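name: query_chain
kind: protein
chains: 1
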Amino acid sequence: MEFKASFKCINPECGSSYELTDIIYRCRDCDELLEVVHDMDQLKKRSAREWKELFENRYRKNEWPYGSSVWGKKELACPNVDNENIVSTYEGGTNLFWADRLGQQLGLEDFWVKQCGMAHTGSFKDLGMTILVSMVKQMISQGKNIKAVACASTGDTSASLAAYCAVAGIPAIVFLPKNKVSLTQLIQPITHGVLTLSLDTDFDGCMKLVREVCQADDIYLANSMNSLRIEGQKTISFELVQQFNWEVPDFVIVPGGNLGNVSAIGKGFQMFYDLGLIDKLPRLVCAQAERANPLYRSFKQEFKTFEPMQAQKTLASAIQIGDPVSVKKAIRTLKAFEGIVEEATENELANAASKANRTGLLCCPHTGVALAVLEKLVSRGVIKKKDKVVVISTANGLKFTDFLFKCHTEKIPGVQSDYAFEAIELPAKYDDVRNAIREKIEV
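structure:
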């Protein structure tokens, strides 16, 4: 069968469509965002059983490019790319961690953490970037004059773009807010030899500049307003269903900043539902930092209005966004999924991450936001003891060792660390070592 996808305006009163090889980020007729749409009638010609068999046979195998958990669902993700133009690092298939001990502490029997940070560049952004950079390579092969790919970033998007462009041999440019990303994140584009611009502004300022730079067709925009990214990120939902043996969780909790990921995850579940691969949809929860919470404020008003805000500095730096690009898509998704939006303070997110880490996880601050929101929903009785719950962990905790160190040394202003824990410095003498051990552990 021949499958195909295209861009379509999200404005239901417009509905203009464009080819995926068009260099376009907003509708030319009404200036609204675009989304990728698939020929569902064609996809439905293959039965749900046949799709499941195909996906199971491909999953994590070595036949190029289908071992990638994104490209193993190529027909549902991006069928328009020729296999020779796919740029992949074997992304996806990340660990679904049964957080049993933490779940018991929270009063949950069926709690899981989807560790999207166990990826090539350490975050979920690889899932979307593989599709975007592959489409760029496809366009270049068809004669498009694309000289570079650019993005604004709070760290993870830039790392992913840099790596995938390095794999493809395509120049990239990243716009970073000065002194607002961790050294671990900053070094990733630098070590890949990517043009890295550290700008004296916040993410929203970087986003404004990169959009201006990408107005010319020869520099391609890689931020999530480019809906190709969403197509890769929606495979998180595909993976969850497959890893749960084709069952659907009751709740999925997603950290929210620019709001592309909650939109993507909803889209993935909806697509599987429409194709008959699942028979229900989960409830989606978007978790925001209190200092960057415009969607939460809108949710409290039943989404009747939405007002951008000036995001304040937060430990959850990747979601420190006050004017999210994908807000309309996110609101549409949350309405369709009985969605909830909740916030977490700095103290709550830091202690939620530290608490989880005591049970064997290694959480970034954004995962801390989601875990803190989970605790609130459990305490209010929204999430019940027997519900199957998944928290989406967006990045590897090793990218945020400065955050973790400050949590344990109580060096975060305004945060009371309930789980502070430091190494004990001792002389190299047996008696001192023995006494220290006996002080802490019954022997």
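note: The domain at 96-122+230-408 is CATH 3.40.50.1100 (Rossmann fold).
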